Each structure stands twice: as structure tokens, then as C-alpha cells.
Amino acid sequence: MTPPGGKTSWKKAAVVAVPALAAVAAMAVGMAEGVLASSFAVSGSAFQVSSGELSSKGLASYVHVDRSADGTGHPVVLLGIGDAALSDICQSAQVDTPLGTVVFKLTAGGRAGQVRASNLVIDSEDLVGDAAFGRVQLGRDASTLDAVPGVQGEAGQFGLQASEVSVSGVRSHARSATGGDFKLKGLSLDVNLSGKACF
Fold first, then answer.
1. 4 falls within a domain
2. How many domains does the chain have?
């Protein structure tokens, strides 16, 4: 039965909101626990992350495999970012619900001020942008990386690190993102059946 005009169907709203709230809770727990390097099971699909400008003191990176709850492996590049400032941030994911595919979208920064993060770890399938690196080291053994605390791979793995990095026009499809300290100015969450993704 359709509710009268101007009234909300709370049952339908709950069906849409619960998956998104669960995702927010999972992100909050991960951030509170610091650098996790995807020690948790990731969802079955990647999400979008974008920013106009990202700069950081410290970058460490190596190839990593994330696992879904069913054990499926997903190859990613683990990006450890030490002390980051972002002009803005957008994160969006498509979530299947009984009502259809919902776009869950989180935005922050912009006019509200910079987004700041320390020990930010992004498990990414790809990354696009214009980058500048300071004191870069390509091919360093991943087990010896020291630019970002706690971000190290296995001995013999290919690693990359830099003392600083600046990237403009950031676009990435990621499997997970965690941070030791995340400050989101102007945070906005949106869950919408007709919502638009970040890019």
C-alpha cells in the first residue's frame, strides 16, 4: 500500500538505509583501529574514490591480495600515505537492495576546508592523476619500506616509496580504505536510488 502524499514509508527507508549504515560502521571501526592493510574481508565489489588534490609526507606501496568473505582473492596495489591533506574527497559505492541498486556516497572537504588523514591505507585496483614525487625509491624490497609506519610487505616483493607525494585529479577504484586518524570537514552522506557516483 502506498503511503499518503507527504509521508515516509519507514519500512522502505530502512531497507535502503541499513546496508549503508552497516558500511559506515565498518569504515568507522577500521579507521579507529588504525593501519589495517585490509586485515578484514573486503566486499565483493570495488568503490570509487576521488579528490581534486592530495598531498602527503610519506608514501609506501606494494602489491597485495585482498580477500572477500568467501575467500576470493583480489589483486590490489596497497598505497600507504603517511600524513595527507586532501582538498576534498568523494567515495561512492553501488549497493544492491530489494528496492534496486542504491548509490551510497560520502563527500567532505571543498568549501568546508581540507580533509586530513594520517597513516591512510588504500587498497586500490587503479589510480589516475598527475603526480609529483620527492626522493622516490622504485624497486625497494617491500619488507624494508619505512616511509609510512606499519606499511611493509613480504621480503622479496617489489616496493616503492617516496618522502613526499602530490597528486591532482585523483581517481581510483579501491577495495578498502582505512586511516589511523581521519578528519572530515563538511561530511555529507547520501543514499539514493538515482544517486550519481563520484565519476
1. no
2. 1
